[in-house]
Amino acid sequence: MDEKVRALTEQAAGLAVMAERVRREIRTVIVGQAPIIDKLTVAAISRGHALLEGMPGLAKTLLVKTMADCVRSGFVRIQFTPDLLPADITGTKIYEHATSEFKTVKGPIFSNFVLADEINRAPPKVQSALLEAMQEGQVSIQGETHALSRPFFVMATQNPIESEGTYRLPEAQVDRFMLKLVMSYPSRSEESEIIRRFTEGEPREAAGVIGAEDMVRMQEFVPSVYADESVRSYVADIVDATRNPVAHGLDPSSVRTEYGASPRASIWLMLGAKAVAMMDSRGYVMPEDVREVAPDVLRHRILLTYEAEADGDTNDAVISRILDGVRVP
What we know:
alpha/beta; Rossmann fold; Helicase, Ruva Protein, domain 3; 2 domains; 5-stranded parallel β-sheet; two-stranded antiparallel sheet; 13 helices
């Protein structure tokens, strides 16, 4: 291991302690859901955003609020409804008679951790207002541009069982989320612990274990984690296999995609792998780190053919075949 990688590993070890503090503290409030907690942490320290799909009542709101409490930063929950307007999120200008001037009133998007609850219930204009803030890290209010403070993390949720009164997010907008996570039901033992904790007066709020500046330090370190050329090629091969499976020795009948992943997938796949490496106290990326985040990065970025969907094939199954078929360096 050369000196540069050794120095990065030493730095990663110190930052990994902070990341582990956050995850450990979240687990004192949230029962189970360890993989979701880990992946949300990956997204947050990669400066990405997450789309969380799950049934009602699975503690999605509590999860992101708890993360905000752990980082001692601002949290806001925006309930998306069909009558919501873009200004309800970004803010607007109002006229003050006392000063005869227009005053900018900032909306709830000006926070550190934002929960966009049931994002698919809001009309496209509102969805676009949120996604623009996510992409650019700034908000324009009637001609004035305002930078969003860091850290800035959006977790959007959508209900997978209801379509009444919803507006499906276009693929181009969904692509702006780093990860799409699927939240499952708790196990029977976890359900029992949830019942005990929330019916016997034991629920607790998370303590602030790191500051917002610590989260920013982790975010700034992640891109500097070392990735060998072979790992970069591996990321490129995985993403290219979603578009050209035959070129990578895959059976085209097992990877029936109408559209493959965009280059944004390659970027987030590498950044996510670097975040996983940092959380594992390493200053360098291994292929296993790439495989760890690949399903969540690619899940919402590939579109299957009509025939594949008719046969009951799923995005997750196709991604699994790609990971099995692409040569690991």
